Amino acid sequence: MTACEPERNSNGNSAQLSTSGVRFPLKLVAVPSKDIGVNAALKAETDPSFEVKSRIFDEFALPGQVAIVTGGNGGLGLEFAIVLAEQGAKVYAIDLPATPSVDFAAAVKYVKRLGSSLHYRPSDVSKQEVISATVREIAAENDGKIHVCVAAAGILGREFDCTDYPAEMFEKVMDVNCNGVFFTAQAVAKQMKQQEIPGSLILIASMSGSVTNREMNWIAYNTSKSAVIQMARSLACELGPAGIRVNSVSPGHIRTKMTAAVLDDQPEMEAFWASLNPLGRIGAVHELRGVIAWLASDASTFCTGSDIVVSGGHTIW
Ligand SMILES: NC(=O)c1ccc[n+]([C@@H]2O[C@H](COP(=O)([O-])OP(=O)(O)OC[C@H]3O[C@@H](n4cnc5c(N)ncnc54)[C@H](O)[C@@H]3O)[C@@H](O)[C@H]2O)c1
Questions:
Q1: Average pLDDT of the residues of the chain
Q2: What keywords would UniProt list here (predicted)?
C-alpha cells in the first residue's frame, strides 16, 4: 500500500482515511469568548469603565427569541412554555385541542403581565405535513425565526403485558412519542438552518428510555422514549455543524394528567413510585423549570447530544 492509498478494513472496505490519517477534513470552529466570569474579573482589573454586575441571569435570558413547545396545553409542556416566556421569549404552544385549556388561558394572562406573550396553535405532531405546516406558519409570523423548541407532546398508552400488547396501541404510542418528536424537530431544524440560527432543540424523553419502570408494563412507552434519547444524539451530530444544539431531558415520575391516569386508579402507586428514588417522593412540574431554562439558553452553549435525567435519583439505584 502506498502512502496515498486508502486503508482497508478486514472486509476490504475503504476506511476513507486522508493522506494525513485524519478521517475528515477538519474545520476548526472558534471557541466563543465572552466577558463573563473570570474574563469579566480580568477585564474589570484593567478597564475602569467596564460595568461590574452579575451576569449569570443574563446568560439565561431569551430576549427577542421565538420558542415552540409541543404538548403545551397543560402538564409539563405548559410549565415549559411559561419558563421560556419568563426568560423573555415569545412562545407558541402546540397541542391537539382546537381550543386551549382553562389553565392555558390563565397562563396567557400571567405571561402578558410579565411582559411576554404566549400563543396557541392546534396541531398534531404525529402527522408530518400537519406539524411542519404549523411550524412554517409560526416561522412566517416571525420573519422565519425560531430559536428554541421543546418537543414535549407525548402519550403513555395503556398498560398491557408485552405478549398481548395490541399493535394499534404500540403504533399510536410510537406515532406520537417517536415520530411526532422527530417531525417536530425536523420542521424546526429546517427553519433554523435556513435562517442560520444556532438554536436549541430539547426533546422530552423519560427515565423510561433508560430504565424500565418496575411493575409497570409500558413496553411501547419505554421503547419510544429510548428512541427519543438516541434521536437527540443523532440530531445533535447532524445539526452540530450548523451550530444547532439538541439534547433530551428525561424526567422521572412527575404528577401531571399523564401520571394521574394511573394514580387516580391506583393511589397506592404514589408511595411505591416514591420509594424507588432516594428523595422518597415523586416530582412536581416546576422542578423541571431550571433544566429547560438552562438548555434553551446561552448558559448551556457547549451542551449537545446529552440526556439530562431529572428523576429524584430514580435511575441511580
Ligand atoms: N409526567 C411524568 O411523570 C413524565 C415523566 C417522564 C416523561 N414525561 C414526558 O413529558 C411529556 C409531557 O407529559 P405530561 O406528563 O405533561 O403529560 P400530559 O398528558 O399532561 O401532556 C402531554 C400533552 O401532549 C399532548 N399531545 C398528545 N398527543 C399529541 C399530538 N399528537 N400532537 C400534539 N400534542 C399532543 C396532549 O394533548 C397533552 O397536552 C411527555 O412527552 C411525557 O412522556 C412525563
A1: 94
A2: NADP, Oxidoreductase
The verdict on residue 264 lying in a domain is no
d(CA 165, CA 172): 12
Task: Examine residue 39 and state whether it is found in any structural domain, yes or no.
Answer: no
Indicate the angle between helix axes 75-86 and 102-113, nearest 10 degrees.
10
Ligand 1 contact, 68 CB (< 6 A):
no
Q: Look up the CATH number of the domain holding residue 189.
A: 3.40.50.720
Atom 11 (ligand 1): residue with closest C-alpha? 152
Most informative mutation of 95, 223, 269, 310 for ligand 1 (most atoms within 8 A of CB): 95
Q: Using one digit for the tens of pLDDT, what is the confidence trace for 160-201?
A: 999 999 999 999 999 999 999 999 999 999 999 999 999 999
Q: What is the pLDDT of residues 203-261, one digit of tens each?
A: 999 999 999 999 999 999 999 999 999 999 999 999 999 999 999 999 999 999 999 99
Question: Looking at the domain assignment, is residue 315 inside a domain?
Answer: no
pLDDT of residue 16 exceeding 90 = no
The domain tally of the chain equals: 1
> How many Å apart are CA 269 and CA 271, to the nearest integer?
6
Question: Is 157 among the domain residues?
Answer: yes
Which pLDDT value is given to residue 19?
Answer: 56
- The string of DSSP codes covering 80-99 is HHHHHHHTT-EEEEEESSSS
Range of the domain at 224: 63-253+285-310
79 lines ligand 1 (CB under 6 A): no
